[in-house]
Amino acid sequence: MDTVNLSKQHPEQYKLLAGLDASVASALAAAGIDPLLAELVKIRVSQLNGCAFCLRMHTRDAIAKGETTDRLAVIAAWWESQYFTEQEKAALALAEKVTELPVQDEHDTDDGALTAEQVSAISWLVIVMNAWNRLAIRSHYPVAP
């Protein structure tokens, strides 16, 4: 057996990851990161990792926070659209860099749109989101209509 539900098999580790996630949410708020931008980052990281469970969850969360279907439709090619602000572009580029280590500076749009505190908070968000994706993918969390 090489597939198990990791959160059920080791609930204490799951709780620790959830605690880290909550701590990162506090860091994002302290850095002035809009909760909707955090959802966009979670969606992009989940796209890169191929995590259907997290994609569905965070797309629904983004819509509930007011995100548009047009922006959600083009987030996978955010650099080719005019839908995103400079701060959003910088955050999405950072999400790709942290997720796909090492990455060439293909989408390096950090022109100072993010402060050092915001870069750190978003980097932690991406690190935690990568962990959640891997947990969901490895545990084969169900994603049914």
UniProtKB/TrEMBL annotation:
Cite the entry's keywords alphabetically.
Answer: Oxidoreductase, Peroxidase
Residue span, Carboxymuconolactone decarboxylase-like domain: 18-96
The record ties this protein, via InterPro entries, to:
AhpD-like (IPR029032), AhpD_core (IPR004675), CMD-like (IPR003779)
Q: Which organism is it from?
A: Gordonia phthalatica
UniProt-listed NCBIfam families: ahpD_dom
Q: What is this protein called?
A: Alkylhydroperoxidase
Question: Would I find Oxidoreductase among this entry's keywords?
Answer: yes
**GO MF terms, alphabetically ordered:** peroxiredoxin activity
PANTHER family to which the protein is assigned, alphabetical: CARBOXYMUCONOLACTONE DECARBOXYLASE-LIKE DOMAIN-CONTAINING PROTEIN, SI:CH211-175M2.5
